[in-house]
Design goal:
Elements lengths: L2 H10 L3 H13 L4 H20 L5 H22 L8 E7 L7 H12 L2 E5 L6 H10 L4 E5 L6 H13 L4 E4 L5 H6 L4 E2 L3 H13 L1
Parallel strand pairs: 1-2, 1-3, 3-4, 4-5
Helix pairs in contact: 1-2, 1-3, 2-4, 3-4, 4-5, 5-9, 6-7
Length: 206
């Protein structure tokens, strides 16, 4: 098994303690940072597919994302000068009245690993704070999460406020449907973290 394949396997198994070391070993062998990053993103894609298919659950997915972020930490200094990796800044948060953050954290980690600079606003974030942060950070995208049916109006309000301010918006969360995303005037919707990364890349390149 090649070092790259070993990294992929350890990421998918969520082996947080060994991934950073393996990434360093791969670099020492002369592998390119971008090649290692792409391999880890591919591995997370497989994890995302398994999650979507119901073969694994949130804890397994989170731990795989955490393992990947350990590998990304090793690569970050080497990728900093590589403009092909930076996709711009994404402001992300859970909308007002909602304290759920597992899905948001997962999307945040995966977007960061894919080349976005992440500004995580946390949970229970009012619409004006989203807009303010997007302006301050010159964001190319705002990602809003809502996990409760009771906070759907806040999701809509936040999305509309961001759209009015001229930002691209992506929404997601358990009760969110493509139809509701359209009502929110959002530019994108994703049913899961893997889909969020694909959609986010499409939006910033559009």
């Amino acid at each position: 098994m090649s070092k790259i394949q070993e990294i992929q396997e350890m990421v998918s198994k969520g082996k947080t303690k060994v991934v950073a070391g393996l990434v360093q070993e791969a670099l020492d062998e002369g592998k390119q940072p971008k090649e290692i990053l792409d391999a880890m993103i591919e591995s997370m894609g497989v994890v995302g597919d398994k999650f979507s298919a119901g073969e694994i659950f949130v804890p397994e997915m989170l731990i795989a994302a955490k393992a990947m972020s350990k590998g990304v930490d090793v690569l970050k200094p080497l990728l900093a000068g590589d403009s092909s990796v930076s996709l711009g800044t994404c402001v992300i948060g859970t909308v007002a009245g909602d304290l759920h953050d597992i899905g948001k954290n997962l999307v945040s980690m995966m977007l960061e690993s894919s080349g976005f600079t992440i500004v995580d606003l946390g949970v229970d974030v009012p619409a004006d704070k989203f807009v303010e942060a997007a302006k301050e950070n010159n964001a190319v995208l705002a990602a809003c999460s809502g996990l409760l049916t009771t906070t759907m109006p806040a999701l809509k309000q936040t999305s509309l406020a961001l759209k009015d301010a001229g930002f691209k918006v992506m929404v997601g969360g358990a009760p969110v449907t493509p139809e509701y995303a359209a009502e929110c005037k959002a530019d994108g919707y994703a049913p899961d973290a893997g889909g969020a990364v694909t959609k986010a890349k499409e939006l910033v390149k559009a």
